[in-house]
Specification:
Layout: E1 2-7, E2 13-17, E3 25-33, E4 37-45, E5 49-54, H1 58-82, H2 86-89
Length: about 90
């Protein structure tokens, strides 16, 4: 299941999955774009592995990678808490 996590002023959104096998969380990034409606990419945390890149440049991905590094503790912590594992990990 996917859950909204954050919406930015430019309309970009981060949507995250529940905790997956191996303690991984899938984050989908979607950004509106005037030319082709929106750009999207899937990113796996804590691996920072990008898949299914649609429209984002290498520079965009570098910027999103930095943003995910900043937000990863909150994203992973929330997924772990919902899975009932947060108390064990702290």
């Amino acid at each position: 299941m996917m859950h909204p996590f954050m919406t930015y002023a430019d309309g970009s959104e981060l949507i995250r999955s529940d905790l997956k096998e191996g303690g991984r969380v899938l984050v989908r990034i979607e950004s509106p774009n005037a030319d082709d409606f929106f750009h999207s990419v899937d990113a796996w945390l804590p691996d920072y592995l990008f898949e299914n890149v649609n429209g984002f440049s290498d520079q965009d991905l570098d910027e999103w990678n930095a943003e995910l590094h900043r937000l990863a503790p909150a994203i992973l912590g929330l997924a772990m808490e919902e899975a009932g594992l947060y108390a064990e990990a702290v």
